[in-house]
Amino acid sequence: MSKLNKLALPYFIWMTLLVLIPTILILILSLSNLDIYTLGSFTFNLDAFSIFSRPEVQVAAKNSIRLSLAATAICFLIGYPVAYYLANIKSSNKTFFVSLLIIPVWSNMLLRIIAWEKLFFPKSILNMFGLSFDLIGTDTAILIGMTSMYLPFMVLPIYSVLEKMDKSLIEAAKDLGANNIKTFFKVILPLSLTGVVSGTIMTFLPSMTAFALPERLSGGKTLLIGNIIEDYFMKTANINAGSLISIILMVIIIFLFILIIKFDKEGETLI
Amino acid sequence: MKKFGNITLFSITSLAFIVIYFPIFVITLLSFNDSTKDYTFVGFSFRWYIEIFKDDRLLEAIINTISVAVLSTLIATIIGTLTAIGINSLKKNMRVRMMILNNVPVINPDIVTGISLMLVFSLLPLSFGMGTMLMGHIFFSTPFVVLTVMPKLKELDENLFDAALDLGCNRFQAIYKVIIPSIKTGIIAGALIAFTMSIDDFVISYFTTGNGFQNVSLWIYSRLGRRNFSPAVYAYNTLVIFITITILTVVNRLNNNKSIKIKRRLKEMKV
After folding, report:
1. Residue B205 and residue B189: Cα distance in Å, rounded?
2. What is the pLDDT at residue B270?
3. DSSP letters of B58-104?
4. Chain B hits for A251, Cβ within 8 Å
5. What does the pLDDT read at residue A265?
6. Are residues B204 and B176 in the same domain?
7. Closest to B207 measured CA to CA, from B79, B115, B89, B109
8. In CATH, what number is assigned to the domain containing residue B194?
9. With contacts defined as CB-CB under 8 Å, which chain A residues touch B123?
10. Mean pLDDT in chain B?
11. Of the residues A142, A249, B90, B168, which has the maximum number of CB atoms within 10 A of its CB?
């Protein structure tokens, strides 16, 4: 099969082009006054760092970290039992139930966000069921929205690890005298850690960088870091500052990346 | 004790499905609502389903969404499969390195991928529009195909390719007639994920489109909270979900029938 390794070359070039070049470009942009649209000469400076003293950036950073950590924790607390339940049901429709988790992803994410937005106004379609919520602008609204959007991404990697797990290990633990709780914490949980790491990253990153979701569910009040990036790149043409925030995000991602590589070299639990 | 645990797990799973499906339920309800007002249910009607075909801009956006999804899925599946074959034949060190590069777009938040692509495309002599959006979609969906095909390739006997060559196939035939059929399930799964990623993408499309080229997500985003937001898009979304669930149910039924038949045959053989 080793004669086939040339097949990987075009992809290598294409990926390098689209991953490495923009990363270098964003790095230069964040440390200089380069104008991307004219591409003239530029000088290195640290002007972009002044954004850290801006209140809106500070608030957005705090909001992002707080809300995405909370959303990830909720997704894990709900998602792990769901994955465990689905991996252990004895039904011929097992794959069907798991696929049901993926179907909502086919539905447009923006529309699902709008659907939650409509429910969170006091005057909503829920009135006909005698219910009324006034949640727009609260953290609860954003957290419910995030859980609804990103929960499948937590469940699926954990499910795929639990599903492949050797069931005789659990029996062995019980034979050796462990009770249910001990078996879970000493055997099942450590063995499913790769799935938990992938699931956590797949929910943490999108919730931290979401921009349409907080924009709609907070009524424009609670800004997240994604809103700031979008604003700087698309609305106020403050590309150098936007690049700096992107670089900081990338540093966080590289850190998480190393974590993934440590647990799962070829990223087999990412899907 | 065990029963109690099962009931808890079942309730959490039900709660998860409710949280994930609730917005879809609301969208479906609104798609049958005989009114443009989204806070009261006036009466049952199919008018928004007919409206899909009357609203030119929406119809155009739907056609764009489907064309980009089909094209990017086709191209990503072909590139992804060939690349996975190539990566699989690399030595372990190189293979891990290629997989890390491959996983960058999988882990990167959409907003970072979107901005990166926007920057690269603005350096190249390209005009933003369908071409750039298509390239963006191919870029983020190919890694998923590679990820689904790789495990299938690892299960494959390494000598299979050489055997095919010995028996007189040329390299192209060996790939086409021997390797591809044995990794078919991985390729189909990859194509499905690629299609899923493309059909509901908003963020990457937002950063890579131009010249008024809109897919459904961009159509929605540009009309949020405006008067020209037509509930016909709810009808479109409901149709997509309905078609997906139907296909899934049929596939599930077929698979179950197959496994019942196999079980029956096994029983007959024993007798």
Report:
1. 23
2. 65
3. HHHHHHHHHHHHHHHHHHHHHHHHHHHHHHHTS-HHHHHHHHHHHHH
4. none
5. 59
6. yes
7. B115
8. 1.10.3720.10
9. 21, 25, 39
10. 84
11. A142
- DSSP-assigned states of every residue in A49-105: GGGGG-HHHHHHHHHHHHHHHHHHHHHHHHHHHHHHHHHH---TTHHHHHHHHHHHH
What count of other Cβ atoms lies within 10 Å of the Cβ of residue B42?
A: 10
Q: Which residues contact B45 (CB under 8 A, 6 or more apart)?
A: B32, B33, B34
Q: Same domain for B165 and B69?
A: yes
Question: Which fold is adopted by the domain A54-263?
Answer: MetI-like fold (1.10.3720)
> What would the pLDDT profile of B173-217 be if each residue is shown by its tens digit?
888 888 888 888 888 888 888 888 888 888 899 988 887 888 888
pLDDT digits (tens, 9 = 90+) for B129-169: 888 999 999 999 999 999 888 888 888 887 888 888 888 88
Domains of chain B: total: 2
Residues B225 and B104 both lie in one domain: yes
Q: Give the three-class secondary structure for A269.
A: coil
Q: Other CB atoms closer than 10 Å to residue B59's CB: what's the count?
A: 15
> What global pTM score does this model have?
0.84
Looking at residue B2, what is its pLDDT? 61
Contact B107, A256 (CB under 8 A): yes
Q: Is there a contact between A15 and B20 if contact means CB atoms under 8 Å apart?
A: no
Chain A residues with CB under 8 Å of B102 CB are: 11, 15, 267
- Nearest CB among B41, B106, B144 relative to A125 is that of B41
Q: Check whether residue B30 and residue B140 sit in a common domain.
A: no
pLDDT at B78: 92
Percent of chain A exceeding pLDDT 90 equals 10
Q: Does B39 share its domain with B71?
A: no
Task: Mention every residue, 6+ apart, whose C-beta is less than 8 A from residue B158.
Answer: A1
Mean pLDDT per 10-residue interval, chain A, length 271 residues: 72 86 84 69 71 81 90 93 88 80 82 88 75 78 91 90 83 82 83 86 87 83 81 79 85 80 64 56
Chain B's closest residue to A4, CA to CA, is B86
Which amino acid makes up residue A237? A
Give the separation between CA A193 and CA A116, rounded to whole angstroms. Answer: 32
User: What pLDDT shows up at residue A106?
Assistant: 78
Residue B198 structural domain: 56-229
B162 and B48 together in one domain: no
Pair A4, B165: CB distance under 8 Å = no
Nearest CA-CA distance, residue B153 and chain A, Å:
11
B163 and B218 together in one domain: yes
Among all chains, which residue has been given the structure tokens 């499969």? B81
